[in-house]
Amino acid sequence: MSEEPSSAEGSNPDPRTDAAEGLTHTTDEGDVQMVDVGDKPDSERRAVAVGEIRLRPSTIEAIRADEVGKGDVLATARIGAIQAVKHTWETIPMCHQIPITNVDTDFDLGEDRIELTVAVETTGKTGCEMEALEGVTTGLNVVWDMVKAVEKDDDGQYPDTGIENVRVRRKEKHRSSD
Question: Where is this region: Disordered (predicted)?
């Protein structure tokens, strides 16, 4: 039979409470909650995220030449990235729905990879880095979906394909002028 530590030893019987201290997405009891940003002032905010998809060089050339059977890979990925930015609050449970004021996407085609940069701007009470990350990951997933037929090997696997290095490159916050 295991012995429970006494309160005199300073133990907390619920480890979730200790872990939750200092976290804004949990209550004192350790329950998940959305952060209340109602009292925060509006700020102009911008976040830039980047990531890349590794592809076969022949696939990159097919994308450059617009010879992929499903259509224009980069145009479709751009639309997917923008849609993902606009719907982030629906897929990440604790994200607020924020007013997106601008989304920029930029694709850089290398020899064996495509780098996607997504910049998101908003004026509001909370940042937009999750939106930028969602734009990058979805945009890269759309690229993969568009080229999967030519990326598969003879066994139907993707040995040369991978999404990598997804990260927030920069975030900015400027107090809005009234």
Answer: 1-44, 154-178
Residue 121 annotated as binding site: no
Model confidence pTM above 0.85? no
Dihedrals φ, ψ of 37, to 5°? -110, 10
Q: Give me the residue spans of the domains in the chain.
A: 49-175
CA distance to 27, 113, 164, 165, per residue, from 160 (Å):
44, 10, 12, 16
Class of domain 49-175: alpha beta
Q: Is 104 a catalytic residue?
A: no
CA–CA separation, 67 and 59 (whole Å) = 9
Q: What is the pLDDT of residues 96-130, one digit of tens each?
A: 889 999 999 999 999 999 999 999 999 987 789 99
The answer for residues whose C-beta is within 8 angstroms of residue 53's C-beta and 6 or more apart is 113, 114, 116, 140, 143, 144, 161, 162, 163, 164
Q: CA end-to-end span of the chain, whole Å? A: 65
Q: Is 131 annotated as a binding residue?
A: yes
Residue 31 DSSP SS3: coil
